[in-house]
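Following up on my earlier thread - several people asked me to post the actual chain instead of describing it. Fair enough. Here it is, all 413 residues.
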Amino acid sequence: MTAMRVLFAWEMGKNYGHVTQIADVAAELASRGAEIYMALQSPAAMRPFAGKFDYHLLQAPYHPVRPPRKGEGRMMPQIYPDDLLPCGYANPDDLSAQVRCWRSLYDLVRPDALLTQAAPTALLAARGMKFKTAQLGRSYDVPPLDSPMPPLRYWEEPDKKNMQAREDAVLKNINEALESLKLPKLKRFRDMMETDMTFLCTIAELDHYPERKGVEYYGPFVKTDSGESYSWNKGAAKRILAYIRPNGAGFESCLKALASLPPDHDIIVAAPGIPEGVRKKLSRDNLGIIDGPVRLDKLLPDCDLAVSHGSAGICCALALAGVPMLMLPGHVEQLMFARAVGRTGAGRGLVGRYGGRDILKLMGVMLTDPQFRENAKALARKYASFSPEDLAVRIADEIEAGCSIKSARRKKG
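Reply from S.P.:
Thanks for posting it. Predicted structure:
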C-alpha cells in the first residue's frame, strides 16, 4: 500500500505555539504509516518532538518581518489582508518569489495533502495543484471568508469604503505576483483562503470573530503536561499564575504588581526570556519566576486567577480548566481574544495606558467578586466532555477521508 504523503506548513507568526497545533496531527498520521513533511518558518520549533515520530524537516519560504524603525510606529491592521502586508504582500516581486518557492517545494515533495497553520502564501501557491488542501487554526488565522473580509476591530464603526480599498490594494499586489508567474488571477481576496478542509480548533465562545456563522468548532489543542514542574505553597490565601513575556504589553508593570501582593498570596510566573538578574531580584518564597514554560495540569485546578497577554493557546487551557483570566493584550489578535473572554464573563482586560496600580486594582476586583469564578467554571462545565487528546485522531480521520486514502496502520484505540 502506498503511504499517504502529508506536508504541514507554518509561515507567519513568531511563537512556537504554531507548531504545537500541527505536531499532534502529524504524529497521529505518522502512526498510521503516512509520510510526514514539515515546512516551517522556524525548523528549530520541532526540537521538542525529535524522536517522537518520523518526519522530513524543511525550511518554509517566508518573508522576514522588519521591525519598525525609530519614529515609524506600528501599522494598526483593520482587516486580515493588512496583516499580510509586512509578510511580503506589499511588494508583488517579493510575493511572486515566495509563491515560486512554495510551488517548487510542492514539485519536490509531491504531497497528497497540504495542511497549513498560519501559512496563507502556501495556500495561495497551492491553487491549481492536484493535492488536497486544509487549514487549521484557533480562529484568528482562519478568518471568515467574507467579501470584503470582516473588520478585526468589529466593535468600532467600520469604514467600509476604506476597508474595501485596503483589501483591493492587497488583491492587486497578489494578482500582479500571480500574473508574473503566468498563474490565474483571483477575483476576490477570500479566494486564496479557500480550502478543501477547514479545522477551526477553538470553541464558539472564544472565536476571535463573534459574528461567524455556519461553521463547525473542533475544540482547542491544549497541552498542559509539559514545562517545568511547580506546586502551590500550602495554606496560601490566593493562588495566581502569570504567563507573560518580557516583550509583551505591561510586562514590567505586571511584575511589579505581582511582587507587591501580600505574603499570603502565592504567585507563579512563567516568563520565557526574562533577564536572569530580574528573575533573581524579584523571586522569593511566595513568588516563583521561571524563565520558560511551566507545567499547568498540576496548577490549574487550584488557581484563583491567571494573568496573560490574551494569547489563545494559554487562554484556551485556562478556559477548559475554569480559571478566571486577567489579560494585558498587546496587539489586535490578543485584543480580539480578550474581548471574547470578556463576553463569557470569565475575564477582564486592560488596554491603553495603565500601570501597576491599575493591574492591582483589577486583580483585587477579580479575586473578590465570585462572579468571575462562577462564569469561568460554567464555561468549563459546558465543555467538560471535550477531549483534546482525541482531536488529532478526529482531524487525521478527516484528512484520510478527504484524500480517499485508508490508514496503512490501525488507528489508536
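Confidence is low (pLDDT under 50) at residues 408-413. That should answer part of your original question.
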